[in-house]
Amino acid sequence: MKIASRFPIKANASLLVLLIIGHLLVLVTGLTYLSTLSAMLLVLVVTGFSFSNSYSQYLKVTQNSDDLCWSGENWLVHDDDLQGNICYLELLDTSWITAEFSLLKFDNTSEQFAWLFTRNSLGERLYSELCYLTRLNLKRNTVDDS
């Protein structure tokens, strides 16, 4: 299988810091302005649950065992198993593409994936290429559907 482009799926430190600071601000504000112990405990539990869920989602969009690849015709990644099977993906039209980041959503027959790519983590050239290929693929999917 020839690979035309590879896009590494990387952790995003600024997003993780934003996630942590946001939850800490909610926790500190809630504990500061509430006077009853039960209300403080509720804020603590809800914030802990929210952080746990948010962190789990963060890991899903910033980690994978392989890079996202474009073959020239298809999006693909290698499966997590040791055999290195190729998993072909279909780009979903619910993906977000902006000048600074892209949240790309994919589907295969058994599950959905979403990965975050930023201009800072990929670099100018690679991020521009990712955006171009994504928009081209989305346009092609729109034309094929009509």
Describe this structure in words.
This protein is α+β, with helices and mostly antiparallel strands. It has one domain (1-146). It is 50% helix and 22% strand. It contains 4 helices and 7 strands; from the N terminus they run E-H-H-E-E-E-E-E-E-H-H. The chain has helices at 13-33, 37-62, 119-122, 124-145; strands at residues 5-7, 68-70, 75-78, 86-91, 96-97, 101-107, 112-118. Strands 1, 2, 3, 4, 5, 6 and 7 form a 7-stranded antiparallel β-sheet that branches. Helix 1 (13-33) runs antiparallel to helix 2 (37-62). The longest helix is centred in the middle third of the chain and has 26 residues, at 37-62. It is elongated. The two termini are 30 Å apart.
How far apart are the termini? 30 Å
Structural class: alpha+beta
The structural domain count equals 1
Principal-axes geometry comes out as: elongated
Based on CA atoms alone, the radius of gyration comes out at: 19 Å
Residues in helices, as a percent range: 40-55%
Residues in β-strands, percent? 15-25%
Q: Tell me the number of helical segments per DSSP (H or I, 4 or more residues long).
A: 4
- Major sheet: 7 strands, antiparallel
Instruction: Write the H/E string, N to C.
Output: EHHEEEEEEHH
Average of pLDDT: 92
Model regions low in confidence, pLDDT < 50 over at least 5 residues: none
Total count of strands: 7
